[in-house]
Design brief:
10-stranded mixed beta sheet; 9 helices
Length: 371
């Protein structure tokens, strides 16, 4: 990547860390959405909050094509891609999501412990002994730890064999409570949101480790792309929208709020890394098929062509257990082509890891594909 563009990758990494610090499990995303609106406004855009709570913004209207207009201002770093007769010219919607995994209080035990129900695919095996925050309806926030019931190995002879599930695990509230009534007096009740610590770390070697990189890392990439268009005075030949959805983890993030005229949907989400797949954390992944079926053949082909033109380090993979906002939109009846890309992320829905190179390659692919 050109040296002058590295600042946008730095910006994406910074925004990822800021977003990860804002609790936003599905159903409790208002603060994250308000933050995103403020960032878009600072860049000079006019975002709007959807009724469901997502953030929708129009980046450009597809008013130019080529390296420069008559005023001599440079408009595109990828003129061949922008002007190609093979490139799609209809409006496109880029989608990422800022909702994350989390939990909700489903009950209080006689001993004053909290039973949980997951929001999205939060796996108890991945959250044992994790610190969390309990958000009450009155605004008070308490801390706690999600533990196996009878969690002392010196007391529980079945500690190793016990299956970790929401039936066998509970939150210990960090308050002097001895029974359910003590907990209720704090204002904690069924339906309260429980947020888990992201534990974000960025290493000197460029790795970013955190819960909820899915999908705050790609949300940050879309912010960086929006900033790039503004600061470099780029006007791609296509009309481009961005939608940061807030219910992706529970399956209906992009089922609504598709702008009129959009003919293509591109989810920018996490790329899968694992056994049987070729993608690494330092690449951008192009998904050809997930658990809902194949992505649009022409979109996948166009993404591969754009990656190769720009010298992007990429991989094409099939995700066996995955669904995206693009899938949700098509399931809702939207008539559009669809695709899915994202930086490689290891240990999805657990303590995840990616790399700034994966961020840079995703950014480069967006630049090349969109023109």
């Amino acid at each position: 990547m050109e040296k002058r563009l590295e600042k946008y990758v730095d910006y994406m990494m910074e925004q990822a860390q800021k977003l990860l610090a804002i609790d936003s499990p599905s159903g409790y995303t208002k603060k994250a959405a308000e933050y995103l609106c403020s960032v878009y406004r600072e860049m000079g855009y006019e975002p709007e909050m959807t009724v469901k709570g997502g953030v929708l913004v129009k980046l450009c209207s597809g008013t130019s094509c080529g390296p420069e207009d008559s005023d001599g201002v440079r408009r595109s770093d990828a003129p061949e891609a922008a002007c190609s007769t093979e490139a799609f010219e209809e409006p496109i919607l880029l989608m990422a999501h800022t909702d994350t995994l989390g939990a909700m209080v489903s009950g209080i035990t006689p001993e004053g412990r909290l039973k949980l129900t997951p929001l999205g695919g939060l796996n108890p095996n991945n959250t044992e002994a994790e610190n969390c925050r309990i958000l009450t309806r009155k605004g008070t926030v308490y801390t706690g730890t999600f533990q196996l019931s009878n969690a002392s190995i010196h007391v529980n002879g079945e500690f190793n064999e016990k299956k970790r599930s929401y039936d066998t695990m509970e939150v210990l509230v960090d308050e002097p409570v001895e029974n359910a009534e003590d907990v209720k007096k704090l204002g904690i009740m069924t339906g309260d949101i429980v947020c888990f610590d992201p534990r974000t770390v960025v290493t000197p070697s460029g790795y970013i480790k955190s819960r909820f990189l899915d999908d705050k890392l790609s949300t940050a990439i879309l912010l960086g792309y929006a900033r790039y268009l503004k600061e470099e005075n780029i006007s791609p030949s296509r009309t481009i929208y961005q939608h940061i959805t807030v219910f992706e983890e529970v399956g209906h993030g992009a089922c609504a709020s598709i702008p009129e005229g959009v003919k293509e949907l591109l989810s920018v989400d996490m790329g899968c890394v694992g056994e049987g797949l070729t993608c690494t954390e330092r690449q951008v992944s192009i998904c050809s098929k997930d658990s809902h079926g194949p992505y649009h053949y022409d979109v996948v082909s166009g993404l591969i062509d754009a990656a190769e033109r720009a010298g992007v380090d990429y991989a094409v993979d099939v995700y066996p257990y995955y669904g995206s906002d693009a899938d949700a939109a098509l399931g809702a009846g939207i008539d559009a082509r669809h695709g899915l890309i994202g930086p490689g992320v290891y240990a999805s829905h657990g303590y995840e890891r990616s790399h700034r190179d994966g961020v840079a390659n995703t950014f480069s692919l967006l630049k090349s594909y969109l023109g």
